[in-house]
Amino acid sequence: MALKVKLLIGALVLAISAPVFASGKTVDKDFPIITRATSSMNWDDVLAEASGQTVTFHFWGGNIKHNDFVCEYLHNRLMDKYNVGINCILIESTMAAVNQVIGEFNAGRTDDGSIDMIWINGNSYYTLRQADLLFGPYAAQLPNAKYIAADNPGWTQDFGNPVEGYESHWGHGKFILFYDSDNVANPPGTVDELLDWICANPGRFTYPVLPTFTGRRFVTEIFYRVTGGVDQWIGEYTPAMKANWDAKSPALWDALNKIEPCLWRKGSTYPLDRAPLDELYANGEVDFGMATGAFLAASRTREGIFPPSTTAMVFDDGTVSDTHYVGIMANSPNKAGALVLANELQDPEVQLYYADPATRGDIPAISIDLLPADIAARFRALDFGAGALTPEDMTKALPGVGTEIIKLMEEGWQKYVVEQ
Question: 293, CA 20 to 30 Å: which among 111, 115, 220, 395?
């Protein structure tokens, strides 16, 4: 089956009403799957139905190594093992795919949608879940879910929203900064120190625009520190939290406006996403880059894209971490194939390939302690190269804010930073 890759650009963000989440559903011992015949099958039946299907998978296409991981490595592996193909649709905005699903449902395409699976978390999950457009629950029933630790917080919530089996793990994200140690002799260990460094070194720092994922992550790091801590922003969004936001968010805009004239090009323009920031860093125009992925800096350095003096870092008190998920659309015509792909993403061999900086280089979803001894040993033998985060740094994790705070942050950044 030929490999298919397509790039979609642009998104229309819809206004969504207050969320309504279903309570947990009872799952039969046999694997649940909704087909055109609405039947329940065990995993062998899933594999039988999946054979010959092609899963249309929409995901952010801004990382070439990730694209190769899915569209070549995984595609070929699934074809060889299960006769299941992947139709990769590379997108710039996950909400573009979400809006496409919503539009198709509204047009009456309730069982023959054009999208089978999307890489989701945060707002994209929230939007699909509250609209009841995700297939599930299925995550705990995947055969390879046994390799994910029971205390993994990704089982229970995604940016404050209950998961309840409607999306499944395949990796972890962690916000990192990286810098050129030839130019940055004393890297800042805290957000306050970074803000001071930026204006002490004008033109040598910038960050991506919001609402890009990386830009939002950077602003969230600032937000937590200038408003007095993380805990007050985690949990159910209530009128009290909104009042707290109204009282404390001006400190965020003050901090960002203070550094704006110190940024690259004096803050007159911002990188449109992480990839342009990577290019600025690789070309030596700025001294810091940022990403979500513990090994990205080491991987790019190993490839010769970043200077050999590149070093990854997190703040002394940690950085925001989260789970990468995939979700299967309720109107997918290829649910069996999508389930096989979701399960293969958790396969130990696939996760090893995913973690290896020579091939992908990111934080795996599975727990090494739960793996067969031979594969666990191979994980522990991986060489992440100079500049990678230490295991201690990886454990310094802060939770992400919920969808409503994200929305307020994005709107406020546009109004109080860009338009000022």
Answer: 115
